Amino acid sequence: MVVVAVGCALTSVPTAGGVVAEPVCVRRLTDQEGQKLQQIVRRGSASSVRFRRAMMLLASAGGNRVPVIAQLV
Fold first, then answer.
1. What are 31-46's pLDDT values in tens digits?
2. CA 20, 11, 69 angle in degrees (round to 5)?
């Protein structure tokens, strides 16, 4: 099982229309963690929840923003 901690804090930023949260990002993955996540995605034999979570973590660790990640999963 791979557990990845969130590395950025969620804070609010005032805007003209209200308050918007800053993006949350995943910490840098170790090589072993990245390989395990890629293995889950490539095999596709894991549960659909596990597959989607692996996709989200890989996309976030790769520097993608929420709209891009949302299109992937």
1. 999 999 999 999 987 7
2. 65
